[in-house]
Amino acid sequence: RCESLVEVHFQLHQQVMAASAKLGAEVLPRLLERFNEVLSSLVKSSFLVEKQPPQVLKTQTKFQASVRFLLGPQLLKASAKPYMVRADMVTEKQARELALSAYSNTLSESTGEIMHNVVALETNPTSGTCCANFKNVLLKKIKRCERKGSESVTEEKCAVLFSTTVALTPGNLSVHLQVLSLPIVVIVHGNQDNNAKATVLWDSAFSEIDRVPFVVAERVPWEKMCDTLNLKFMAEVQTTKGLLKEHYFFLAQKIFNDHSTSLEDFQSRSVSWAQFNKEILPGRGFTFWQWFDGVLDLTKRCLKSYWSDRLIVGFISKQYVCKLLSTEPDGTFLLRFS
């Protein structure tokens, strides 16, 4: 699609040049300038991240990523030396400034130190693609931002900015290409992993597609949260058996610390980020997400087949279990997530 748009652009350009005498000295330069703007805009939007870096990224750990320039095979002439693509870490504030300037200004300083962060943009003749593959990038260290209030380091989002400058044929128009990765939470120790995953999950599930980087709602409808927990559960455990109505009821009672309500009462409620992974559950030493993440891990490692055969209720309260079992014959038992 991008390539055929460029073809249309060049045809129009040729027609304008053919009619240049008739257009006159006033109209022609204006049209040509507009042509350059349109081409530049099209070219910039065809530079994209094909393989995203991991969204939870540990320092001193190698990772991979790749960017692709859709119009590369068509517009880049075989220059003597290949164009190089750089990868830099940027803060949320820097990402926002770049986005608001429509990626027209360049990065002033990188927010972390990345090793092996410059790679050639290469065209593959067999697949007809133009890519820069970052195969063993390593984030050496990260400069943390000023944090707001009680914000922890695992709530801080950054991104990788990929950038290069290319000269296009014909016309030798020079265009600066930049594209941001999805938001990344940088950790320095494995024990930060599940809090980092919470930030990424909340961002992936509840952010708008066209947004200022990396704004996301502070509260979301409980129904949306149910969908997210269900998708996450099925993906992590690798099962086709998702969560059921009664499971949601139990989860709602847990996250809202409300045991008196009926299932319908929770439908219209909204849940906050703090309830999800900031506030410690009453009488416990962990948040709702930390508990749910533990359940995911346990089910994935030990209980996958039992869950998939619907042999585990799992998400059920102690009180309700006692009530259910009181009428059953001795020896009847239920498995529940404590």
Automatic annotation (TrEMBL):
Keyword terms, alphabetized: Activator, Cytoplasm, DNA-binding, Nucleus, Phosphoprotein, SH2 domain, Transcription, Transcription regulation
Pfam families the UniProt entry points to: STAT_bind, STAT_linker
Keyword Transcription: yes
Annotated Signal transducer and activator of transcription linker domain residues: 210-292
Domain STAT transcription factor DNA-binding: 51-187
GO CC entries: cytoplasm; nucleus
SUPFAM superfamilies hit by this protein: p53-like transcription factors (SSF49417), SH2 domain (SSF55550)
Any one GO molecular-function label of the UniProt entry: DNA-binding transcription activator activity, RNA polymerase II-specific
Subcellular location: Cytoplasm; Nucleus
Gene Ontology BP terms: cell surface receptor signaling pathway
UniProt-listed PANTHER family: SIGNAL TRANSDUCER AND ACTIVATOR OF TRANSCRIPTION
Family that this chain belongs to: Belongs to the transcription factor STAT family.
Protein name in UniProt: STAT6 protein
Organism: Heliornis fulica (sungrebe)
